[in-house]
Design brief:
Elements: H1 3-31, E1 36-37, H2 39-43, E2 53-59, E3 65-66, E4 72-78, E5 83-89, E6 101-108, E7 114-121, H3 130-147
Parallel strand pairs: 1-2, 5-7
Antiparallel strand pairs: 2-4, 2-6, 3-4, 4-5, 6-7
């Protein structure tokens, strides 16, 4: 093999290896991507069925119900326009309370109940995830427009 062909083979194999590595990284990134949806979007069937996503809003007042096993909790997430029932099995964050902001990650079951794998509560008095705050504001605006 001529030196010129050898250099060309090294360059081609290097570019091929780089392309394969980039494809693997992008595939891993895409499979771990989780999208955020508001309760209004979930109720409108905009959320994926059978895929993991995040839902956020406020924990509806009076909706927290603990099961007899001590670790399963049922509650309702609302954006003031629509409500979605959530079931979570595990230890809830200390800041998880009724009327406070929450983001839950999991899957929507065929019966319309969101089965959460993870529940995140707000960090302090002034914090709410930007997606949840935006969804609540948008739902309030839609409610105001519909009332007119």
């Amino acid at each position: 093999m001529k030196p010129r062909h050898r250099k060309m083979a090294i360059i081609v194999s290097g570019v091929s290896a780089l392309g394969i590595a980039a494809a693997l990284v992008l595939n891993a990134f895409e499979s771990n991507m989780v999208f955020f949806f508001s309760p209004t979007q979930v109720a409108a069937n905009e959320a994926p069925r059978g895929k993991s996503f995040r839902i956020g809003g406020l924990v509806e007042e009076g909706s927290i119900k603990r099961q007899g096993d001590g670790v399963t909790v049922n509650f309702v997430v609302t954006d003031t326009a629509k409500v979605i029932p959530v079931v979570y099995t595990g230890i809830l964050p200390d800041l998880f309370k009724e009327g406070k902001g929450v983001v839950a990650q999991g899957k929507l079951s065929p019966d319309g109940v969101f089965r959460a794998d993870e529940v995140l509560a707000k960090h302090d008095e002034n914090y709410m995830p930007p997606e949840a705050a935006g969804a609540i504001e948008q739902a309030k605006m839609q409610k105001t427009v519909m009332a007119k």
